[in-house]
Structures
1.
Amino acid sequence: MNIKKVGNVILAVKDIDKSIQFYHELIGLPIKNQRRSWVDLGTSGAMLSLHPASLTAQHVGSSIDNGITIGFLVGDVQSAVEELKEKGVRIHRDIVEREAGKNAVILDPDDYLISLFEPNFADKEQQTGGYHGFTPS
């Protein structure tokens, strides 16, 4: 096996239209590909893919229950949180500042945790080697 990189993160969502509105219109991720039952969001690197949860099985558990957190790097976490609050996005944890940078956690329509991270690195595109100190709970 020769894995090159993470291709996409797939989220099972209760209402794909609400999730598209959240990730595309509120968060600002561009839609790369879209079909009725599948949407890829993003421009480079790993895609965030939305897929309706099974119509025959109950969608149970939140991100906290099942351990899923999506992390986005942002240029200015303070302005991002202020903008999202104005748009009615639920804040799970307001901004916390640590040595590696600033972090806040929001919730999507399915209660998945979304971590917004503004690194203190000279290269703002660099991802931290781990979110130590930035876990959502």
2.
Amino acid sequence: MSKARVFRIQVIKPVLLKIGGANLAAEELLLGTAVQESLNFMYRSQVGGGPAKGYFQMEPATHDDIWDNFLKYRKGLAKDVISFLSSPNANKITELENNDKYAAAMARTHYMRVPAALPKAGDIKAQANYWKQYYNTPLGKGLPHEYIDKWGVVS
């Protein structure tokens, strides 16, 4: 079984079931994000010494902003996200890098903040563009065609 399939079954699906928003579109978007950001599960730390952590390559500043400006006001969701920490006092940035379920919960929460609806399941081109616009950002180095190319390898 491929790393992507295992990750989808053992990490993404249980996280989505716990925090809400479990649907095929969210599942595909999270898998595509992890595959693209980590270069198909090769890197847990940003290449070149940058700040991004984990397979989702979330930066600590983004992580903290999600907690300070979104989860702080959504106690139920915050409780569900916290439930993925390896211990109550775990360092959340270390968890981003090494705890895939916590990182997936944070990535899904990041996408929850976006006012635009998720692209439909199966529309990988739209998912690639959505990832670029809302996760990698227009100033990020990633490109939608890279996302699509990597998706073709894991799907």
3.
Amino acid sequence: MKRFIKILYPAACVLITMLLGSCTDPGAIVDTNTQIADHNWSYVNRAKFDCKIDDEKAAYNLYFNLRVTDAYKYSNLFVLIHQKNPNGYIKTTRYELKLASKDGQWLGKGSGNLYSYQVPFQSGFKFPVKGTYHFEIEQNMRDNPLHEVSDVGIRVEKVK
């Protein structure tokens, strides 16, 4: 029995490691989220992310990641996305994200009382130069803080 366990345990560890390693997305340059403290997103609490671009000739898709609770009281969300390139140039763009249909149905994927969204905000985008880009996401709604926002993030992937 001990011999069987000595063989089975390392084999199970290798199998689990291989399975977990295969879960990563090779197309994603960045796919990360920041948790919002107490689900209250204030104007001053910008979510900050860095993205290293090695190929400025490639096209990229950029997504906004979001999770809200079912108690979020709006059908949309306005955000400002501040993008700073390696040369120091800052571009700020305002986006509206639709979170629910007109009849009140959430458009995101639900799990318990959380709804997840991955909304494209730039498709086929070409970064002008190689280097590290800095993104900051700021909520731009009238409420401050904005209640029932769990996580915000960004995903950058090469176009396939």
4.
Amino acid sequence: MLIEQPPILYRLLFPNSIWRLRVPDKKTVYLTFDDGPIPEVTPWVLSILNKYNIKATFFCVGDNVRKYGHIYDQIIKEGHITGNHTFHHMQGWKNSPKKFLSDTNDAGKLINSQLFRPPHGHMIFPQPGLLKKNGYKIIMWDVVTRDYSRFMTPEQVLANVKRYTRDGSVIVFHDSLKAEKNLRYALPLSIEWLLEQGYSFELIPSYR
């Protein structure tokens, strides 16, 4: 559970970040996808979202946007929104604040969004403050599906969605090769289950 739904103490480390978004009188969830876009997975994700008429937020790696700009353009064209996931999928705690911000800004040259999600959720002081000063809004999550894990079965990934999702949950999937097997099974079934539970799928709002 410490991975699938971050505990309060971890959330307190990043108090100005968004973990969950509740809307009065509405049962909402926010689907997000990290690490793309890539041709092997992202177009399939888009086709599933289109099938169910759902919009999502894609936290993109800048180098993937550079290589597969046509897929990034497709994400935007189909009414989804994007966020910054650094240029090189850079982990904050392994790099200096200056280098981390520079890599994020490099991605920002290709990704027109103030939304930012740190890879693996890892940052060190003063990285969050530097990001905020540079106009970024940090978006974390309420549910990690763990679709990327080779130790998880597709059925377990779906079970994580069912067990941990609640009103306002920001849910993380990955449009990546590591996640592909689990994602192809769990994503459509998760969407169907969430719809059956009465959830409305929303986009993470702009904070400019």
